[in-house]
Write a structure and sequence with these properties.
Blueprint: H1 2-21, H2 30-33, H3 44-68, H4 72-95, H5 99-121, H6 125-128, H7 132-151
């Protein structure tokens, strides 16, 4: 089990590392600083803390799900799609400044992670709660992206 958790930790934090390479100056950038942002936008440090917590929980979730599901191909396919969408959002939003396409990406990611929660919740309730921080954070992040799209 620990090996599976470590494997998913490497993959999930790898996604964050790749995404951050495309972020460039990111939050402190002149482009981002001049955007009209939602009043509920958290301070910058919250993003790092949130993603660290989310990826630890999601890695444990995936390790248990891998052991418990019957259709590992479906789980793997969903995980890969989640991984790609997670990495993709950063360059679309921060590097290329394409707010609407970034909104599409993060909305798709949010729907997919909600699917992870709902699809497997009936089979393993306690473990599925580990994905709840991811769902909640994506709902906030999607609302922030939507606000920027509507106000800029």
């Amino acid at each position: 089990m620990y090996l599976r958790i470590a494997f998913f930790l490497v993959l999930n934090f790898g996604a964050l590392a790749i995404g951050s390479r495309f972020t460039g100056a990111g939050v402190p950038s002149e482009w981002y600083q001049h955007l009209a942002k939602a009043p509920w936008t958290p301070p910058g440090w919250v993003f790092g803390a949130a993603w660290t917590t989310i990826m630890i929980c999601f890695s444990i979730y995936m390790a248990f799900a891998w052991k418990m599901v019957e259709n590992r191909n479906l789980l793997l396919g969903l995980f890969i799609l989640q991984w790609v969408l997670n990495v993709l959002w950063n360059p679309v939003f921060f590097k290329y400044h394409h707010v609407l396409p970034a909104l599409v990406v993060i909305t798709a990611l949010t729907i997919l992670v909600i699917y992870f929660l709902l699809a497997y919740f009936a089979r393993f309730k306690a473990i599925s709660l580990l994905i709840l921080p991811y769902v909640l954070w994506l709902l906030v992040a999607t609302s922030l992206n939507l606000y920027i799209y509507l106000k800029n």
